Amino acid sequence: MPKVRFEPDGIEIEVPVGTSILEASNKAHAQVGSACGGVCACSTCHVYVKQGLGDLEGASDREEDIMDKAFDVRSNSRLGCQSKIEGEDATIVVAAIAAQAIPLVAQMKVQDSQDAVDAGNGNAALSAAKTAVSVEPWAASTHLQLALVDEQLGDLRTALREARAAVAHDDADWSLWVVRARLETKLGQIPAARQSLKRAAALNPHSPLFASNSSG
Ligand code: FES
């Protein structure tokens, strides 16, 4: 039976042929991420295959597309959810570093972007915000930062698209609805802005921001 070892913990498990690295990780309680649930849409299951790369099923075009947007891709990078083990006697050794590194890197990029805004450097702010989104596209905070930078640079349509993406990733955060409403207002989309503001007020009815709305 094939064997999979996870570094740096050294956790090892035997699994049947056809098992993916992510499935093996789940079984062994190792540290491979799976934000999209293993459907090849996020890259949190990014691993470095240190041994046994040739014993894995080849990467599909879809996996390669996701990998194009992943962080610190190397020649032995694979998505754990897409890497099924083919070799009967294979020993696969993987290092699952990406899941831990991604939030940190994205957060640092958001911070770099905020610093660049403070320093009045719009291009650097935009570039850092875009990198943050590409590193962690499922996080509301990265889309929010990109929305704010686009807004500052006057690209309101892109800003609204990013604000909507932020809301889509965390629709319980009232402040994201406020940003969305502001951009909709700036773009003249008044009915949509009213709806967004209504959602924000429903999520945070005690904010002083909505006091005049409720009385008037
Ligand atoms: S778990 Fe999301 S791409 Fe593998």
Task: Please explain how this structure is put together.
By secondary structure, this protein is of the alpha+beta class. It contains nine helices and five strands. A five-stranded mixed beta sheet has the order 2-1-5-3-4, with helices on one face. Strand 1 and strand 2 form a beta hairpin. Helix 5 packs antiparallel against helix 6. The site of FE2/S2 (inorganic) cluster (FES) has 13 residues, from loops.
Topology, pairings included?
Blueprint: E1 3-7, E2 11-14, H1 21-28, E3 46-51, H2 61-68, E4 77-79, E5 91-95, H3 98-118, H4 122-135, H5 140-152, H6 156-169, H7 174-186, H8 190-203, H9 211-215
Parallel strand pairs: 1-5
Antiparallel strand pairs: 1-2, 3-4, 3-5
The structure holds FE2/S2 (inorganic) cluster.
FE2/S2 (inorganic) cluster (FES) binds next to loops.
Total individual domains: 2
- Biggest sheet: strands side by side, in what order? 2-1-5-3-4
Task: Give the helix proportion (percent range).
Answer: 40-55%
The CATH architecture of the largest domain can be given as Alpha Horseshoe
CATH superfamily of the largest domain: Tetratricopeptide repeat domain
Shape: elongated
Low-confidence stretches: none
Largest sheet report: 5 strands, mixed
Q: Could you give the distance between the termini?
A: 71 Å
Give me the Rg, rounded: 21 Å
Structural class: alpha+beta
Give a list of the ligands: FE2/S2 (inorganic) cluster
String of helices and strands:
EEHEHEEHHHHHHH
Strand content: 5-15%
Instruction: Return the average pLDDT rounded to an integer.
Output: 89
CATH-derived topology of the largest domain: Serine Threonine Protein Phosphatase 5, Tetratricopeptide repeat
Q: Can you identify the CATH class of the largest domain?
A: Mainly Alpha
Question: What is the subunit arrangement here?
Answer: single chain
Count of helical segments? 9
